[in-house]
Amino acid sequence: MHHLEIRNISSSYGKLEVLRDVTLSADKGEVVSLIGPSGSGKSTLLRVLIGLTPPTGGNVYIGGNKVDYNSRKSLKDLRGHMAIVFQQYNLFQNMNVLRNVTIAPVKIKKKPREEAEVRARGLLQKVGMEEKADAYPDELSGGQQQRVAIARALATSPEILLLDEVTSALDPERVKEVLDTIRSLTHEGITLIIVSHEMAFVREVSTRVAMMDQGKIVEVGPPEQIFRSPVESRTRDFVSKILSH
Amino acid sequence: MNYTFQFAAVLEELPYLLGGAVVTLQIAFASFWGGAVIGLFGALAKVYGGVVARRIAAGYVTLLTNTPALVQIFLLYYALPDAGILLEPMTAVLIGLVLNAGAYLTEILRAGVLSVRRSEIEAAATLGMSQLQIVRYVMLPHIAKTIYAPLSNFFVWLVLGSSLAALFGVEELTGRAINISTANLRSIETFTIVAAIYIVLTVIASASLALVGRWAFRVKAKVF
């Protein structure tokens, strides 16, 4: 059994089926990227995985244990293993950088504050933000906020980290600093599920790439297959349009 | 006008009046915090509640904001004994003001609850926070920041509004002023000094609220 198993997941908003029978898996430490046009369900899949959008069918297993998205206890348990970084960073505006990163370890995992702060400073150093520990989010650029958001997610020691278009809201100049940060995570044993339009980056860091369209997974394979010799015509179509930019 | 002002007789009673000012502040604080708790649940019910919770909150607010606080306390004080519930004047005033403040604070807090960004609530949930922790660490600070100014105004209103307790024989600032003036017959002087004490109270309250706001919520509130 794989570390993360997504089996036949479906999800709808009212009558609109956003995810249809999605099956995907990831081994520990793998980097799986989701690509596809806007509205294909990539972000929804991440939201379903972390329990923000309820699935209407199918199951998710982590380390062989089934996640019950209707149970608060199961959700809390899930979020001890999995974290997400959002497109819009979603930092807590009323807390400074250090507190953003320590709030989950201190208040949820009940770690002593000093210990959490030492660890948080280490994580901030890792993302290059240790000097801004006392700043508030509204004093930071988008790229800086996003790097703090990554540190905040890492502070919960996730085995699985979901990255939802984390560079889409950034200036081109800021994209690189965030991608560099993510690249540094790819060899740490954390399973990464990445939704991204940065094709060169996806191609470079992914162990496997899944092409999504209209709520379905069209094709899954190593980056070489998806970007060089896709099997499905829909993938070929999408990739050629994106790469010809 | 050949009225001779005689403040000396009133100033003798200054400690007694200041004691009343303390009671005034106690009534204002108690109704404010009691009302804030009701208001928080009322606002959450109005924004996030189901149909029943929303209806109850809306009915409560409509009823309490469309009748005078004075009338509400009269009802508590004079009507409840018929139902076998006897309240001390102070108790009746406090319950009345708490219920009244709760209704106004429900509306003020609702604006605050609406100001909380959904994205931050989601981020908090994905970090594993419980509903209560989300309210405590993410929503309340936002709410506090947004509603800081109307909240300060409301507190000042409560300090002044608590004077209606005097009608029920509660010896807060106005009540004690009535006591003094009926004894010394120096109404003008007495109430001039009482007015001055009220001004001092509200100015101190506004200034300290502004300071708390700056310190706790990074609000750029004017102290004066």
The level-1 CATH class of chain A:
Alpha Beta
**CATH architect. name of chain A:** 3-Layer(aba) Sandwich
Q: Total strand count of chain B, please?
A: 0
How many E-type strands of chain A? 10
Low-confidence stretches of chain A: none
Strand order of the biggest β-sheet of chain A: 6-7-8-3-9-10
Distance between the termini of chain B: 36 Å
Largest sheet of chain A: 6 strands, mixed
Contiguous helical run count of chain A:
9
Our estimate of the beta-strand percent of chain A is 15-25%
Q: Domains counted in the coordinates of chain B: how many?
A: 1
Q: Output the helix-strand order of chain B.
A: HHHHHHHHHH
Radius of gyration of chain A: 18 Å
Approximate strand percentage of chain B: under 5%
What name goes with the CATH superfamily of chain B? MetI-like
Helix and strand layout, with pairings?
The complex is a heterodimer of chains A (about 240) and B (about 220).
Chain A (H helix, E strand, L loop, with lengths): L3 E10 L2 E11 L4 E5 L6 H8 L7 E6 L2 E2 L5 H10 E4 L11 H11 L5 H14 L15 H13 L5 E5 L7 H12 L7 E5 L3 H7 L2 E6 L2 E6 L1 H6 L4 H11 L2
Parallel strand pairs in A: 3-8, 3-9, 6-7, 7-8
Antiparallel strand pairs in A: 1-2, 1-4, 4-5, 9-10
Helix pairs in contact in A: 3-4, 3-5, 4-5, 5-6
Chain B lengths: L7 H4 L2 H35 L2 H15 L3 H11 L9 H27 L2 H9 L4 H16 L1 H14 L11 H12 L2 H31 L7
Helix pairs in contact in B: 2-3, 2-5, 2-8, 2-9, 2-10, 3-5, 4-5, 5-7, 5-8, 6-7, 8-10, 9-10
